[in-house]
Write a structure and sequence with these properties.
With 285 residues, the protein is of the alpha/beta class. The protein is built from ten helices and eight strands. Strands 1, 2, 3, 4, 5, 6, 7 and 8 form an eight-stranded mixed β-sheet that branches. The chain is globular and about 55 Å long. The relative contact order is 0.17. The model has no long low-confidence stretch (mean pLDDT 95). Bound molecules: adenosine monophosphate and manganese (II) ion (3 copies). One manganese (II) ion binds next to loops.
């Protein structure tokens, strides 16, 4: 089992646990390195960092940015970022403003489907109105009896093709990578196997990602099948990108995997953390 997990969410975005409780859970689960990667916000980093100090584990400051690549939404992780970098903070604020507008439109569509007051229900579950996301709507729909669980809320209403799906223009790939690099961070393409792209399109995306300064593919992800892992490891090597690993943990029972319950990287992959000082002291290779 890995003792490193480079993708996890707190309740500053759509995770269930406060940043300090997420870190505590990671410590109990035997992690020595954990990245907090909330969607489009770094608001949880300082609490997570303080808790990591208490628990004796290394906290990697991270973020998961919502990006539009043409009509496709992709997620780009920024790892080892300076969470006070001005360009990054400006960029994230711009993305979060779109979350607020999207939420109003999602609620309008749900109302049309006979589900009133979904905006209030979602906002009550979010840290603030700019961090509101589809998972908050999904949890509200479950509580209101409109869906039996989060996954079916996505299937019927919130996912691509659902009746309340709202296409949103997020950040440009070039901008997101630029903000991460200006913040001293490393850009990682999150869960590429989940994008549903045909091989040639995925190759084009990854090649462009690399050309714009992206450094790694998330090879190990809870949402990847064994075949995805093999394909992503191959693609990373082909394009001279390194490999990352993360659970994408959100909440016990809701997530595919718990923190740190990850397979090792394929042997030929170059770990994105290979030269990180946090990992040297943790004795990871
Ligand atoms: P958002 O960034 O608000 O559009 O929401 C994206 C988040 O929704 C992802 O990070 C996941 O947490 C969650 N999500 C996306 N698709 C699904 C799905 N099919 N089932 C459950 N959760 C999902
Ligand atoms: Mn999420
Ligand atoms: Mn994601
Ligand atoms: Mn995620």
């Amino acid at each position: 089992m890995h003792t490193i997990d480079l993708h996890a969410h707190s309740d500053r975005s759509d995770g269930a646990l406060a940043p300090q409780d997420l870190v505590a859970r990671g410590a109990v689960r035997g992690l020595s390195v954990l990245a907090l990667t909330d969607h489009d916000t770094v608001a949880g980093i300082s609490d997570a960092r303080a808790a990591a100090r208490d628990h004796g584990i290394a906290l990697i400051a991270g973020v998961e940015m919502s990006v539009s690549w043409g009509a496709v939404t992709v997620h780009v992780l920024g790892l080892r970022i300076d969470p006070s970098a001005a360009a990054l903070l400006d960029g994230l604020a711009g993305i979060r403003a779109r979350r607020r507008e999207r939420a109003k439109e999602i609620a309008r569509r749900l109302e049309r489907d006979g589900i009133p007051d979904a905006l209030d229900g979602a906002l009550a579950r979010a840290a603030d109105e700019e961090s509101v996301g589809r998972v908050h709507f999904a949890r509200h729909l479950v509580a209101a009896g409109a869906a039996k669980d989060v996954r079916s809320a996505f299937r019927r209403y919130l996912g691509t093709g659902g009746s309340a799906y709202v296409r949103t223009r997020w950040a440009a790939l070039e901008d997101a990578i630029g903000w991460i690099k200006e913040a001293g961070g490393i850009a990682v393409l999150a869960h590429p196997g989940r994008l549903g792209l045909r091989p040639a399109r995925l190759h084009a995306l990854c090649a462009q990602f690399k050309a714009l300064g992206g450094e790694a593919l998330e090879v190990i992800s809870a949402s990847h099948t064994a075949a995805d892992i093999a394909r992503m490891a191959w693609l990373a090597r082909e394009l001279d990108l390194s490999a990352s690993a993360g659970s994408d943990f959100h909440a016990a029972g809701e997530s595919w995997l718990d923190l740190g319950a990850l397979d090792p990287l394929p042997r030929a992959s170059v770990p994105v953390w290979r030269d990180w000082p946090e990992c040297r002291t943790a004795g990871l290779d």
